[in-house]
Design goal:
globular; 9 helices
């Protein structure tokens, strides 16, 4: 039990760091914010999903405010992104990779924590998805962008699939490091396939979702020039 708790903490902190870098780089490259804005957006992106998760399962105060490591990792990631923004900004696809990594890790930890608090399998999968997309949604709202989860290439679907794999392995009592990594990797691969090939969840025929969308510069595929926002 202690080993599993340590694994979940490690994955949670890894997801926090990934999303912090993602949110901060987004702030630097597309919102043109200053140091405070960059670090703040990175922390909101990194911690938002976990806070939403903990509020929904009544784990109060949220883990973010009980364990200093969450705040430290989120702030550290934001500061690192700010200091290295000139170098990291040249790697357009890095934002996509970090977003996919954070999404995958949080989907797994969110679903697992939901099970630990006595929720059923279906509820745990949903909460895993919410944990995964929560921070990114807050990030997009703050920079006045339509949230990725509402339009982008397979964003919520990978999170739900990863959460489902995590729930299935946990309920079969085979949940360990390989299972957790496998669940996160499943989510990551589906997300990256969606970005690479521009795959989307079906939209209504002739609806607005099929029309052209105005994105921020560089918010395309892996090379920054693709049709969708990563």
């Amino acid at each position: 039990m202690a080993t599993e708790a340590s694994l979940m903490l490690a994955l949670d902190l890894a997801g926090t760091f990934s999303f912090s870098l993602n949110g901060s780089l987004t702030a630097v490259q597309h919102a043109k914010l200053d140091l405070v804005g960059v670090v703040s957006l990175g922390m909101v992106t990194a911690l938002g999903g976990g806070i939403i998760r903990d509020i929904l399962i009544n784990d109060l105060p949220p883990a973010t405010f009980r364990d200093w490591r969450y705040l430290a990792v989120a702030a550290g990631g934001g500061l690192l992104a700010f200091l290295l923004s000139r170098r990291l900004g040249k790697v357009a696809w890095l934002i996509t990779l970090l977003d996919a990594a954070g999404l995958s890790l949080f989907a797994v930890t969110g679903a697992t924590k939901a099970l630990a608090f006595g929720l059923g399998a279906g509820q745990a999968v949903i909460l895993g998805g919410v944990t995964g997309v929560g921070g990114g949604t807050l990030r997009d709202v703050l920079i006045r962008q339509v949230p990725t989860v509402l339009h982008s290439e397979l964003y919520a679907v990978p999170a739900l699939v990863g959460a489902a794999v995590a729930v299935a392995t946990s309920m079969e009592h085979v949940y360990a490091a390989p299972a957790a990594i496998g669940a996160a990797l499943t989510c990551f691969l589906i997300r990256m396939v969606g970005v690479t090939f521009g795959l989307n969840v079906p939209a209504p025929p002739g609806g607005a979702a099929r029309g052209k969308r105005k994105d921020l510069p560089g918010r395309g595929g892996l090379d920054g020039d693709g049709p969708g926002r990563p």
